[in-house]
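Hey team,

Filing this mostly as a record. A colleague (T.K.) asked me to run one chain through the structure pipeline before their review meeting, and I want the input and output archived in the tracker in case anyone asks later how it was produced. No errors, nothing strange. Just documentation.

Input sequence:
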Amino acid sequence: MEIESYLIPSDIEVQPYEAHQWGSYIKTYKPSSFPDLDRVKAVLIGVGESRNSANNEGCSNAPDKVREYLYKLSVISGISLADIGNLRLGNSVSDTYHAVQFVCSELLEKNIIPIIIGGSQDLTYANYLAYQKLQQSVNLVCIDRKIDLGDSEESIDSNSYLHTIIQHPSALLFNLSLAAYQSYFVNDAEIETLKKMYFDVYRLGHIQSKMEEAEPIVRSADILSFDMSAIRQSDAPACVNTTPNGLYGEEACQIMRYAGMSDKLSSMGIYELNPELDNRGQTAHLAAQMIWYFLEGVSNRKNDFPVIVGKDYMKYRVAIPQPITKGQADGHELVFYKSLKTDRWWMEVPFKVDDDKSKFERHHLVPCSYDDYLLACSEEMPDRWWQAYQKLN
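Output structure:
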């Protein structure tokens, strides 16, 4: 079955766009023809599913509103973009999940990046399931003001989808990173639950105090899920759960650019935007600019992930005196790699490859920052290294 059978053209009104705008350049799904995806790098998919939203049903109308502003933004050279329209919603939400899973899986197999415009954030679960066909473990990064673990007894919704992902029997999830959470919306039990599983959590203040530290967080991701309520109300009013504090609009755009520049990231989604609450289209316009910055990042990918470490990398060895396992008499040596193309850093985490863990081999080179290297030089173990080591061994 072809993916177009799951899709319908968007209802966006055709306008006389200028030559430099996406609207005159993007390949779109028209009633008479489905766009040719040959040599396309990324596609837009509208998924107006909100039946499992937490009191935010209006987010179903977001996809076409975001398109209205995105189509007016300037074309980015080096990126071929297609808009394959909106997903046909299923009779049940699980039917919609299946459709998202199938469409995204087909695109991923063609090395095309799906950009999902939601809809509610529980669609992240369907995006996650798309990787089952690829038979690879994945890293998920969520930008959110809170932790959507929910109650283990509840069915999946936008407040509990993370619990469903973590408990899914496929065990695809290698790492989960939650960034920009606001402490007053999170209880200690949720934090402890994630830390016991060696997942990463980063407070809003941590992200805002040094924005470049957000880069290795999203560089580790295969999937990025962005809840628009992570942005402060003054910058993004069209969210039921938005609050006075949160990321600034330009910070959200910076994170999206970092994500686009990652050679590893292969899908992303923006969720929970409710046009009924918007102020002159401000939030929809911001979401469009976030997508623009993501695409601008993709156009600047350097293919510097150190799959084969050679002349394009500087290798650093740092001795850590304390043992990392019980019974180990001596300390440990940490190995860092610095890309000479981009100055980006990775840490090498050793692990024993066997049949059960071979699928984790792609995760033993962990994106990090120069600060992690400096921390190791001061004889302290970086948290990123330790958490990856626990999951790999």
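Quick notes for T.K.: The chain has a mean pLDDT of 92. The chain has eleven helices and 14 strands.
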